[in-house]
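Minutes, project check-in
Item: structure for the 184-residue chain
Input as provided by the requester:
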Amino acid sequence: MIIEEVKFKLKDGREAVLRSPKEEDVESTLEYLVISAGETDFILRYPEECGKYTPEGEKKLFEQKNASPNEAMIMCVVDGRVVGNCEISFFRGMKTRHRASIGIALISEFWNQGIGTKMFEEMIRLAETREEVTQLELEFVEGNARARHLYEKMGFRIAGVHPNAIRLKDGTLLNNYLMIKEVV
């Protein structure tokens, strides 16, 4: 699904653009994936796992997302650089098409600039265009207070827990929390 560009000012005055991914974003996206994976334990990959991502694979993924009627990928671009992205996937089954799943990530250099809020506003807007969608869902890893605060600000609430869902390199086990938001 292609989304229309949304331009906005960051809190520091720079201009950011939310838009669907383009082929020109491939190299910057590969860099973003490695950087974001190395900055926090709350992303579900380590930097060394990012070797599986290739320019060809990312280009194909972008094409699939852009062509899909049930998925959208939104890139946040600042000064020509991909600094964050989010995705929304609409469930298709008769019993589940009232639901949509969201994922979001942002490199730390751009935390607290209003990007997460803007990306969520766009995903919620997309969900509201579908009459059948009544529930948005996402997950976050235990200890990620920054993400939880954003999600709660956007109207999500904890609905469940998956105990010990994440195992860090040092053996630490963390819970994964399900959050939902009702869409009207």
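Outcome recorded: The mean pLDDT is 96.
No further action items on this chain.
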